[in-house]
């Protein structure tokens, strides 16, 4: 039966060509948009996790409430014992201390006086210890534009943009001027070991990266950090696990009345990422629904036209004794097969486009000069298992719905009028 | 007859009330001097505890001043030099002189409730503000004039100041400092008023930045000397490294 219908579809191209084309185009757009948006959202979340939020983050209660002001006086102290506890409790997780700080980078002339300066958005990472993982996590090696990653105390990485503006190069000396965590003035000379560019304006503007030991000494923050980030094994975010760990930790350690007590938050609870993740899920659903609706309308019309064209055929079949429901069922099977072929073609075409885009991406760094949002400068698509079947939902759904709507007319045919209609 | 006497007394009192400008002039005369040398102590009460910072300052008029921090050890030798409206900070640990300008001057000094701008503002009040006398009050058992000062220059640190000035000693006892928007930015309480070299001077000032948490900063002048012989060379960038 199916073989017979399939032959009909393939041999009568007027019956199948246009619907297959419509389905293929619709499926292509659905799959492409889902993969594209999924890729962008995934990259945004990954970028935030790597640079800012971790999969979970531990701060003091006071720091978490005033995070935008980066209050150094509310940093976590006695970090070693906290980290040791977390490592014992969650041995599969990696815990990374970081310090975010701000200040001025000052450049000296030959008399040691200011010849230029600019704001510094500082980040202190564990760069020197043997088991450091942040160099890889932040892709520092590939972000290097010149020089090398800091290897010894007093080395610093500065953003390529700042280096270009000020004429700084590797080996030059700069002075950081800021405040310690207790509010005292803080001065420290550094040697530029390299320049970096992450390709993201919000990360590159005033970027200044030093080792955490230098920052602790400079900011009078012994055994402290502004935040302790936790990453899951394999660097894959698991929201349920993050929620569970966070609840356990906060129940043991956190006291909302004590601004110095630690508090843990999940990735989703930071930087409005929860709404972003929800938005991504909604967008996928909306897109599938929109394409089903739009394609159904088009395919309904195609079905109606097909019904008119095959008016006589259906009349003859009814006259020969075939039941209306059998014809309707045949039409639906036919629609299913057309939808299947169209969906397959649409998915195939979309993969041809998506695979290179997932590898090379689209560089939009030129469009983001003043961007403050932490978002990737190269937009990539993501190929997930759902991509291979997702297109079949609108493809088959729209085709079946369109054909079903168009086929309802079969039930309005009256056998008694068939001969008149067929002008026999 | 009684009415006439009351009117006469009232007229005499009105005659004796100085104008707002005259009050501010007297305050300027008390506060400002040709030069002065001050040893001071600043108690900063932050979230993580109290810090005491001592310093010595030399100033000439309102264009030149030098402050050298004496303690604690982390701050020792740090110097701040003001020349006209430029501010230079010297750090002995890095042997660098850094120039501060623009929005950086609004930052807190050493985590205190004072900004660099507050430290630099030495101009006479009458040069910056026009004053209006709002009335008289009792403040801590002292009779005070209440004045409102509105900035008449563009570069004033505060657009409006409300001052409570001792009617006898012509020293501010309390002050509120406002932004252009009308927001209250700082409150200051002056106390420990002593007569030094024939002028009244408040030796302790409590500054409270209203935009910050905390209990404020207590600035106490341990020793103050007016009209000293201050060598001019100390007010140079080159001298900072000495």
Task: Compose a concise summary of this entry.
The complex is a heterodimer of chains A (424) and B (242). Chain A has 424 residues and is an alpha+beta fold.
Helix-strand blueprint:
The complex is a heterodimer of chains A (424) and B (242).
Chain A: H1 2-11, H2 13-53, E1 56-60, H3 61-65, H4 79-89, E2 94-108, E3 114-125, H5 134-137, H6 140-143, E4 144-147, E5 155-159, H7 160-166, E6 173-179, E7 185-196, H8 201-204, E8 207-211, H9 212-218, E9 227-231, H10 239-253, E10 262-266, H11 273-309, H12 311-319, H13 324-360, E11 362-363, E12 378-379, H14 385-390, H15 392-407, H16 418-421
Parallel strand pairs in A: 3-8, 5-7
Antiparallel strand pairs in A: 1-9, 1-10, 2-3, 2-6, 2-9, 4-7, 5-8, 6-7, 11-12
Helix pairs in contact in A: 1-13, 2-11, 2-13, 2-15, 11-12, 11-15, 13-15
Chain B: H1 2-16, H2 20-31, E1 35-46, E2 49-60, E3 64-71, E4 79-83, E5 86-91, E6 96-100, H3 116-120, H4 125-128, E7 129-139, E8 142-151, E9 160-166, E10 172-178, E11 184-196, E12 199-209, E13 217-226
Antiparallel strand pairs in B: 1-2, 1-13, 2-3, 3-4, 4-5, 5-6, 7-8, 8-9, 9-10, 10-11, 11-12, 12-13
Describe this structure as you would to a colleague.
The complex is a heterodimer of chains A (424) and B (242). In chain A, helix 2 packs antiparallel against helix 15. With 424 residues, chain A is of the alpha+beta class. The mean pLDDT of chain A is 85. Chain A folds into two domains: 2-47 and 275-423, no CATH class; 56-231, no CATH class. Chain A contains 16 helices and twelve strands. A six-stranded mixed barrel of chain A has the order 2-3-8-5-7-6. A two-stranded antiparallel ribbon of chain A has the order 11-12. Chain B has a 13-stranded antiparallel beta sheet. Chain B has helices spanning 2-16, 20-31, 116-120, 125-128; strands at 35-46, 49-60, 64-71, 79-83, 86-91, 96-100, 129-139, 142-151, 160-166, 172-178, 184-196, 199-209, 217-226. The termini of chain B are far apart. Chain B is globular, with a radius of gyration of 20 Å. Chain B contains four helices and 13 strands. Chain B has 242 residues and is mainly beta. The A-B interface holds A 62, 73-74, 104, 106, 108, 111-114, 117, 175, 177, 179-185, 187-189, 220, 259 and B 44, 46-49, 51, 74-75, 78, 88-89, 91, 93-99, 104, 107-108, 110-112, 237, 241.
């Amino acid at each position: 039966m199916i073989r017979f219908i399939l032959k009909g579809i393939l041999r009568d191209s007027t019956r199948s060509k246009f619907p297959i084309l419509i389905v293929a185009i619709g499926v292509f757009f659905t799959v492409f948009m889902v993969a594209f948006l999924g890729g962008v959202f995934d990259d945004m979340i990954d970028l935030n996790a790597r640079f800012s939020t971790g999969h979970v983050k531990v701060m003091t209660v006071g720091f978490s409430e005033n995070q935008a002001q980066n209050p150094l006086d509310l940093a976590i102290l006695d970090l070693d014992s906290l980290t040791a506890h977390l490592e014992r409790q969650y041995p599969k997780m990696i815990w990374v201390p970081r310090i975010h700080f701000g200040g001025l980078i000052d450049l000296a002339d030959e008399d040691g006086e200011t010849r230029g300066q600019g704001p510094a958005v500082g980040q202190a990472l564990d760069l020197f210890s043997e088991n450091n993982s942040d160099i890889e996590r932040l892709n520092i090696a590939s972000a290097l534009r010149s020089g090398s990653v800091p290897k010894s105390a007093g080395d610093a990485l500065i953003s390529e943009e700042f280096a270009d503006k000020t004429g700084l190069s590797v080996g030059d000396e700069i002075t950081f001027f800021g405040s310690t965590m207790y509010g005292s003035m803080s001065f420290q000379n550094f040697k530029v070991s390299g320049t970096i560019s992450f390709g993201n304006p919000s990360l590159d503007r005033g970027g200044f990266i030093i080792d955490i030991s230098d920052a602790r000494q400079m900011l009078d923050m012994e055994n402290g950090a502004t935040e302790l980030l936790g990453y899951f094994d394999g660097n894959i975010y698991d929201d349920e696990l993050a929620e569970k760990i966070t609840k356990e930790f906060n129940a043991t350690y956190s006291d909302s009345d004590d601004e110095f007590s630690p508090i843990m938050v999940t990735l989703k609870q930071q930087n409005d990422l929860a709404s972003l993740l929800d938005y991504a899920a909604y967008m996928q659903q909306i897109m599938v629904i929109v394409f089903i609706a739009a394609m159904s309308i088009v395919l309904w019309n195609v079905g109606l036209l097909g019904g008119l064209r095959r008016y006589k055929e259906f009349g003859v079949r009814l006259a020969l004794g075939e039941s209306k429901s059998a014809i309707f069922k045949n039409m639906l099977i036919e629609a299913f097969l057309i939808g299947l072929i169209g969906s397959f073609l649409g998915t195939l075409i979309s993969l041809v486009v998506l695979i290179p885009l997932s590898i090379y991406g689209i560089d939009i760094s030129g469009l983001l000069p003043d961007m403050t949002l932490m978002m990737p400068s190269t937009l990539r698509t993501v190929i997930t298992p759902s991509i291979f079947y997702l297109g079949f939902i609108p493809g088959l759904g729209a085709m079946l719905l369109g054909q079903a709507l168009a086929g309802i007319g079969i039930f309005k045919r009256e056998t008694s009028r068939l001969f008149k209609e067929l002008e026999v | 007859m009684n009415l006439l006497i009351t009117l006469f007394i009232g007229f005499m009192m009105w005659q004796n009330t100085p104008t707002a400008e005259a009050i501010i002039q007297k305050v300027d005369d008390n506060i400002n001097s040709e030069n002065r040398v001050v040893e001071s102590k600043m108690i900063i009460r932050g979230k993580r505890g109290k810090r005491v910072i001592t310093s010595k300052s030399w100033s000439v008029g309102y264009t030149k001043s030098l402050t050298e921090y004496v303690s604690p050890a982390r701050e020792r030798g740090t110097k701040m030099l003001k020349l006209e409206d430029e501010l230079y900070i010297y750090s002995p640990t890095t042997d660098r002189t850094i120039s501060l300008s623009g929005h950086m001057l609004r930052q807190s000094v050493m985590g205190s409730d004072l900004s660099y701008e507050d430290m630099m503002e030495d101009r006479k009040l009458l040069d910056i503000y026009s004053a209006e006398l709002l009335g008289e009050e009792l403040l801590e058992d002292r009779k005070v004039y209440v004045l409102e000062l509105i900035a008449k220059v563009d570069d004033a640190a505060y657009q409006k100041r409300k001052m409570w000035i001792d009617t006898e000693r012509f020293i501010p006892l309390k002050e509120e400092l406002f932004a252009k928007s009308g927001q209250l930015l700082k409150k200051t309480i002056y106390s420990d008023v002593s007569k030094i070299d024939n002028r009244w001077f408040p030796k302790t000032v409590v500054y409270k930045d209203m935009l910050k948490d905390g209990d404020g900063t207590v600035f106490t002048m341990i020793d103050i000397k007016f009209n000293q012989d201050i060598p001019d060379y100390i007010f140079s960038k080159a001298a900072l490294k000495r």
